[in-house]
Amino acid sequence: MTAESPSVSGSQPQPVLSPLTSAAIFLVVTIAPGGEEKTREVLADLRSLERAFGFGVPEAALSCVAGIGSDAWDRLFDHPRPIGLHPFRPLKGSRHSAVATPGDLLLHLRATRLDLCFGLATEIMNRLRGAVILEDEVQGFKYLDARDLLGFVDGTENPVGTAAREAVLIGEEDPGHAGGSYVIVQKYLHDLDAWNALPVEAQEQIIGRTKATNLELDEAASHAKLNTVLGPDGEEQKILRDNMPFGSPGRGEFGTYFIGYARTPEVTERMLRHMFLGTPDATHDRILDFSTAVTGTLFYAPSADFLDHLPALPTSDAKAGVLAAD
């Protein structure tokens, strides 16, 4: 590790734009007191670990994205904080709430084979033993033809190609963090008994799409419409969703792990405000009557260049200054 700052121009992003795969593991941890150096060592080695586990099976597309939480940033790096990095902002609506839960480090692993995700996650957590506390772990899977457990296709509106890069990767608005991305995660648990008791037509009105053919419906209060965010010029602002179903039939647990990458957290936060606090067309997103958010955290995924050339640890004086400012 060196104390040099990452390059501003041409910064190589982490694999946030990798295609959706059939398997994923999501790990959220907090850093224990004194665990900063070991955490930094793992972050610096992340690319080599990823290559080691994925080298023999390149067709499996193994990748791992690391995100840093707001509280952890000033403990790990003597480097200016990304301008949009802050703690997840909880929302309390008239009927439903988006909770904020602890998280200093997000690890988003994905591949076409779960065993590769499992092997890499095991090695990472072994190296972090004693330095972090596990807050959440979810193993996701592709369900049927890219559907969630509610039975609808998920991620239809994801941008692709150049549009995806523009929607997800930080540019000149924060040149010290070019190539990075913000990521919000939430774990939703579904009441499938109540959901499946609804007629298909009612489900379609809530989602805003047909169940069989995935065609969008003209339903102003639907989940699809509430998650449409427009910019100042009326253009639609996109995020990249890598949501995955998860569950345990034996325990009766069924859910969706929401993970949204964006160039600014404001786009995703506006979507969540529409869902939980409502709009002129709806008091809330009716999908929340059947899906409960049990976690919520905001992270910043720095560029791969940043991880390859980590800034120095903050000095004791710098840490004291941050605490005084807080």
TrEMBL record:
Lineage, top ranks: Bacteria, Bacillati, Actinomycetota, Actinomycetes, Kitasatosporales
Residue intervals of the Dyp-type peroxidase N-terminal domain: 14-142
Cross-referenced NCBIfam families: Dyp_perox_fam
Cofactor: heme b
GO molecular function: peroxidase activity
PROSITE patterns on file: DYP_PEROXIDASE
Organism of derivation: Streptomyces gibsoniae
Signal peptide span: none
Entry keyword DNA damage: no
Annotated ranges, domain Dyp-type peroxidase C-terminal: 145-305
Family: Belongs to the DyP-type peroxidase family.
Record's protein name: Dyp-type peroxidase
Stored InterPro entries: Dimeric_a/b-barrel (IPR011008), Dyp_perox_C (IPR048328), Dyp_perox_N (IPR048327), Dyp_peroxidase (IPR006314)
UniProt keyword list: Iron, Metal-binding, Oxidoreductase, Peroxidase
